[in-house]
Every structure is written in C-alpha cells, then in structure tokens.
Amino acid sequence: QVQLVESGGGLVQAGGSLRLSCTASGRTVSIYRMGWFRQAPGKEREFLATITWSGGDTSYADSVKGRFTISRDNAKNTVDLQMNSLKSEDTAVYSCAARAGRVFSYNYWGQGTQVTVSS
Fold first, then answer.
1. How does DSSP classify residue 8?
2. DSSP letter string over 26-59?
3. What is the sign, positive or negative, of the torsion defined by CA atoms of 61, 21, 83, 52?
4. C-alpha–C-alpha distance, residues 49 and 79, integer Å
C-alpha cells in the first residue's frame, strides 16, 4: 500500500505561482512513476505531468508545458509541481497519483488540493 498526501494549494492571482507537494508513504519502494492530475468542476480529469521515481524522466501535457515543472526528491519521498504563470483556467482540484507494483495505470491517488486562480 502507498499513501499520498498533497499540500500547497490555495488562492493565487493570475500570473502568480504556486508549488504543490505530494508526500508518499508506505511501500514507496514499489513506486515506478508519479503523476499530477487536475479536475475542474464539470470537466474530466486531466493529466498534467509525470516523472519516473528512479530516473526522473518527465513528460508534460501540452496545456502546461513551459509553465509547470514536476520534480521529485527520493530522500524525502516527495514529488512537487511548480506552477508558474497561472491562469484562471488552471483553477481545479489537483491530485497526485502513483503507479506502484506491476501495473500499467496509476493505482494510488491522493485526496487532492484546491487551486484557485483569480483573474
């Protein structure tokens, strides 16, 4: 089992920045990949960014490429999402997820943290 807890959400003005953090606990040795997602009211969950736990290889959705940066700290078991140049359309609940064990999809999810961007 892997537990994920997000932190760092809040209210920010358009053009500002926020840094989200996801702390993993439990069987972290089984984690292969971590990702960040978001879901705005009335919309589908959207993939934002992913990073491999060991090698740090990253990939981003086009909607956030160049504005968001994902990083990990294996010593602290954290994965961060640095969000810059925020827009009102970035308002959503942001969640981190983990692929742990021999699976091909994200099988552990955090509870989410609200990010609200005011225009």
1. -
2. ESGGGEEEEEEEEE-TTS--EEEEEEETTT--EE
3. negative
4. 11
pLDDT the model gives residue 8: 96
Specify the pLDDT at position 55.
Answer: 79
- Apex CA 25: angle with CA 20 and CA 31, to 5°? 85
Distance CA 48, CA 6 (A): 15
Return the SS3 of 24.
Answer: strand
> Which pLDDT score, from 0 to 100, does residue 87 have?
96
Token pair recorded at residue 73 = 């700290």
pLDDT tens by residue, 58-111: 999 999 999 999 999 999 999 999 999 999 999 999 999 999 988 889 999 999
* Torsions phi, psi for 90 (to 5 deg): -85, -5
Question: What is the dihedral sign for C-alpha 44, 19, 65, 96?
Answer: negative
32: exposed, middle or buried (Cβ count in 10 Å: 0-12, 13-18, 19+): middle
